[in-house]
Design brief:
This protein has 295 residues and is of the alpha+beta class. It has three domains: 6-143, no CATH class; 155-245; 256-294. Helices cover 53% and strands 16% of the residues. The chain has helices at residues 20-34, 60-64, 128-143, 155-178, 187-192, 195-237, 239-246, 257-294; strands at 6-12, 17-19, 43-49, 54-57, 74-82, 98-104, 119-125, 251-253. The strands form two sheets. A six-stranded antiparallel sheet has the order 1-7-6-5-3-4. Strands 2-8 form a two-stranded parallel ribbon. Strand 3 and strand 4 (54-57) form a beta hairpin. Helix 4 (155-178) packs antiparallel against helix 6 (195-237). The longest helix has 43 residues, at 195-237. It starts with 5 loop residues before the first strand and ends with a helix.
Length: 295
């Protein structure tokens, strides 16, 4: 029995560096498979920029000639095979409009409380063999441009536990501050005191203890409110996910991005070596200090 419809989709997490040669290779794969359809389907490119602008073209040279400047840097790129009768892709089961699409860059904003795939593709077509063979080709090409995530951690749990840990720290801090330190009096000091001096000392210690406890309560209350405010900020802005995503930014390596990315890589390398060398020097200094103390 003939296949009515076949489809496959896949997501990839982690950063990538996409240069012109690799983009052309992926586009050639799509174009080759698009020409095998009846009627043939051409590749369409849709470029989204940092300033919320976008454009669509059928010419890959237009994409690669993009300035890709800092203010208008490319943050998302679609490659699509779409049948001529439809300008918008529709990959629902049974559709004859959409054929294939590949997205480089996060396809949604960070408002969603979860990590987003940096690369994903979706293919839907009646010819099952065509669909799955194309998926294998695309998967092989995508794996060549990805680099592993620096920290493979569950974003949602980290975003949740960061404010929880802040909230737990406030009462612990207040509990540690709630007991006022009482100055120690030696037995000899007490023996030489008169009754009036003993009463006066007890009264002063009690006043000091009450004052310190009151201050601890006030500062503890302020700390709890401050931590609650920080919790709301952490839940809203998700700093852990944003920081991890910052380490895995998608790179469209053409135009002005070439020099900018090379500078970033050089700076990262310098920082890494400074940290490594500094750590080594600190260890040597510690060993040297310990050795000199024993002599």
């Amino acid at each position: 029995m003939a296949t009515k419809q076949a489809g496959i989709s896949k997501e990839y997490y982690g950063g990538f560096v996409l240069d012109g040669a690799k983009l052309r290779k992926i586009a050639d794969v799509l174009s080759t498979y698009g020409q095998r359809l009846s009627p043939p389907v051409n590749v369409t490119y849709e470029v989204h920029r940092k300033d919320d602008s976008f454009y669509s073209t059928n010419d890959i040279n237009t994409v690669l000639s993009d300035d890709n400047s800092n203010s208008k840097a490319i943050n998302r790129l679609y490659l699509r095979l779409v049948r001529e009768q439809s300008q918008q892709i529709d990959t629902a089961l049974g559709s004859t409009k959409g054929v294939a699409r590949i997205c480089f860059g996060e396809n949604e904003s960070l408002r969603k409380f979860s990590a987003q795939p940096e690369i994903w593709f979706q293919i839907v077509e009646a010819d099952r063999d065509w669909c799955f063979l194309l998926a294998d080709e695309v998967d092989a090409q995508i794996k060549r441009i990805r680099y592993k995530r620096a920290f493979r951690l569950p974003h949602r749990l980290l975003d949740f536990f960061a404010p929880v840990m802040l909230f737990a720290a406030a009462p612990l801090w207040m509990l540690g501050r709630s007991t006022a330190p009482i100055p120690a009096l030696s037995l000899n000091d007490v023996k030489v005191m008169s009754t009036d001096e003993k009463l006066q000392t007890i009264f002063m210690l009690e006043v000091q203890n009450t004052t310190l406890n009151t201050r601890a309560y006030v500062w503890g209350t302020l700390a709890i409110f401050a931590v609650l405010f920080l919790m709301l900020l952490a839940i809203e802005y998700r700093p852990v996910t944003r920081f991890l995503n910052l380490l895995n930014q998608p790179v469209f390596y053409w135009g002005d991005m070439i020099s900018r990315y090379d500078r970033q890589q050089k700076l990262s390398s310098n920082i890494k070596w400074v940290v490594i060398i500094g750590f080594g020097i600190s260890l040597l200094a510690s060993f040297a200090y310990s050795w000199l103390r024993t002599r």
